[in-house]
Amino acid sequence: MKKDTKKRILVWLLMLSLLLPLPGMTNVAHAESTPTPPSPPNLTEVVRDSAQSNHLIMWCSGWGPDGWGHMWRLSSNPDMLSSLWDDFTEEFANSVDFSGSLRNLIDGIVYLAVRYFHGSSSDIVSGWSRVYSVEINDNGEIINVEPYDPEGGGYTGHVCDWEPYTIQEPSCTEPGLRGYKCKHCGTIGNTTEEIPVEHDMQYVKTLSEATCTTSRIYLYRCSRCGYENEVLGTEAFGHEFVWSLDPEDKERYDCIEGGYIRKICDNCGVKSDWQYREPYPGGHQWRDEEFITTVEPTCTTKGEGYHPCWLCPARYKKEIPMVEHQYERKVKTQPTCTAEGVTVEVCKVCGQEKEGSEQTIDQLEHQYELKVNPAPTCTEAGRQSEICKICGEEKPGSAKVLEPSHQWERKTILEPKCLEYGKSIMKCAVCGAEDPATEERIDPPGHTWEERVIEEPTCAEKGWKQKICTVCGREGDLDLIDKLEHTWVEDEDKDPTCTEWGRLSGHCSVCGHTESLDLEPHGHDWEDVKTIREPNCKDAGVKLVRCRICNEEKEEAIPTNDVHDLVEEVSVEPTCTEWGKYRVYCKICGFETVKGDKPPNGHTEVPIEDRAFNCMQGGMVGATKCSVCGEILNQGVYRPAIGHHTWAQKVIEPSTCQKAGSYRRTCTVCSAEEIVPLPLAEHTWARGNIIRVADCAGEGAATRVCTACGALGELEIFPQTDEHNWVTRPGKEPSCTQAGYTESVHCDVCGKTQKLAESIPPAPHKEVTIHAMRPTATLEGRTEGIRCGRCGVWIVPCKTLPKLGSEGTEHNMTKESPPLTQGSDESAAFTSDADFQDFSHVTLNDEIVDESNYDAKEGSTIITFKPAFLKTLPVGKHTVKIVSTTGTARGMLEIKAQATPQTEQVTLPSDTLPKTGEISGDYSWLVLLLLSAGGLIFLNRKKRMAKQRNQI
């Protein structure tokens, strides 16, 4: 390159650097002024979507100025300084769904507003519009929306239009609660209580059928709350006694002489007391269809048997004739290869042979089998031939010589080690000879790893474990051991009351970590105390109710009822022949139910006392009159006396042993009557029911009952016995929550104890670790948990991890944390482009990280590891995976060792240079220009020196 050309290039670069402005430089003549923000937007309407309870709709009046867009914000405070959710700035964004991860960020009330931002920068904004407060419940449902009033005066822009909603449905036993809220602003109004509903009892099953003494029992269950009730069905139908045919019960009875026998219930089998029975009129009743054999007949002797009597133990004996011989053919002599066999017919009852029944069996053929004797060895021949397995004869011409041979098998002559080869060879199992040509190499088996703990974990820090080969001792990979569970100690707790919150708290006695749980107030539990004023059809009543927990009292109204206190009022009394008037009304509210005429009562006819008349004296008979008005209704007739009675007798009630009877004497002429008593009858005594059986607890007793009237006489006493009825009650094994006990023995009659039961304390929980399982595309996963192996109670519940996306699906890690220094107080943030609602879990070096060690938030999915967790990680690179149900994002977290402190001299830049406002920033373009010029000079000089060397 010519010298002039180089100069031209340098001049051109210098001119170019002067024309281009340096970064940070501002040309005063061309500087653009910051846009002036317009007035805040007018937020005209914020309402709930009537179709979706968690959907909010917002509207602004008109669009912003050119170049300005809407920026919506949800904040946890009405000052709108903190953004609860990322600012959503779409031009047409006018709705929000409070669901999924967004709902988890909201604690009761969230504040909403909108402002303008400039298109050149989101930092150039206007003021906020009017702020609205939005109240959200735990289900993400919007329950109230109204403009925020900083003065506390509330929003009175409309009259509330109340609509009911159910807070708690009434159950079969507990009242329900219905609330009221405004359709427009969502303001919560008063609440009313709904009375419990009735049980919906439905048939489940029959617990027991009706018997002679017990009724049928049905089980009914409420289909709503599960309440169960037992209902009586068919009544007990009573015993149906018939004469017992049990041999023990008829042992004392004889059909010819009579005796005692018991009856048995044909339904349940219970037996009555012994009763005397007369001899059976027809004598013994033999059971011809039943014959019992006592001695079986044979081919040479007769047998014996009998027919039993239906009613008594008597037997009708009979002989059984001898049976005929029952012949069957048997082998007497087995045939062989050299002789015939013989069969004969033999009686299978007595074993006698039948004369002339012998028959021959053909001689058998030889059954040859191959045998070796002697066997060949490695050096000597053997012999093989066919031998009959019946007679041992050798088959002619079957002999054969077997050549000698080795019996080879592979043997290991050098055992392989972890990484070293071994050797094997074919060796004779008989003589030990080896074949060198068969030597083979055995591959090394590799290391046999065993995990050993090199640093024990604690509840604050993880431990370390390493793989060690148990054969050669070589060290392998290092792995982390999960931290131990905290050793919890309960701190001072506060129980919740009806209106105040409580708290449970505790700390780890090892590392001091504390946790607490707020307990929600349980609310008042009202019960009726007394009725202060009863309700009626006109006025409501008043009752006093009291909280079962805190004893707070209040008065509640009792609604009016429809029960009138009716009275009848007669204005005109009716007579025997004339009509009256009356009405029926409530004496409390005056409500009149009946009004009208009352019909005449009619005459009440009564007899007029006859003038003395019978067979001995004459007089008037049959006259009657009205007992009310006295009007004579019948004049009667006169009957003269005849001077004597003609009696006829009739028994009214016969006498029994407890009640005297009577008979009536009636005159057949004048009907004069006399009642004459009869004397008492005598009792007929017999033994009645056994009141108590004599046993180890006391004497027995039976009643004496009159068979005629059932009257009870003096008791019949039986002496006490000395025999106990010992019953063993089995023991019960203890569980994790209940104590057990050993078996015991007692008498179920007198209660005497032979062996006492001893208590067994409850057993501790048997902790079983349920290992964590990573989710896949087809199966859900879970975190590690601890469960009791006996009772199944979860000590540490497993958390379910949702299914992942298709295998191989990947997400991008859009942001990774820079390297951190070990022991620093910095956090590490990673961002996956997956939706936050699909987030599942985080792994570090393929181990699931506990949720307490990181914070997760939306946008798209941001995971921030806490400094306390990062301090536990060793120096090196760690693989981070953010796992979502749709895929996995992968990143790297690097932990660097702390640098050794060194003293360095640092020259601070001078801040005394004047600032003109025209030039600011760095001088990288100037440095680049100087370097370019220096490079060209260096290249030119290098070429010149090379040319001089070539000339030399």
Structural summary, described in words:
- With 952 residues, the chain is mainly β.
- Helix content is 6%, strand content 40%.
- The protein is built from four helices and 74 strands.
- Strands 65, 67, 69, 70, 73 and 74 form a six-stranded mixed β-sheet that branches. Strands 3, 5, 6, 7 and 8 form a five-stranded antiparallel β-sheet that branches.
- α1 (3-19) packs antiparallel against α4 (924-951).
- The longest helix has 28 residues, at 924-951.
- The chain is flat, with a radius of gyration of 57 Å.
- Residues 18-32, 152-159, 903-923 and 948-952 have low confidence and may be disordered.
Provide a concise account of the structure shown.
It is built from 4 helices and 74 strands.
Q: Helical amount among residues, as a percent range?
A: under 10%
Task: Report the strand count.
Answer: 74
Low-confidence stretches: 18-32, 152-159, 903-923, 948-952
Distance between the termini: 22 Å
Mean pLDDT: 78
Could you say which overall geometry the principal axes of the C-alpha atoms support? flat
User: For the CA atoms, what is the radius of gyration?
Assistant: 57 Å
**Structural class estimated from helices and strands:** mainly beta
- Number of alpha- plus pi-helical segments: 4
Strand fraction: 35-45%
Largest sheet: 6 strands, mixed
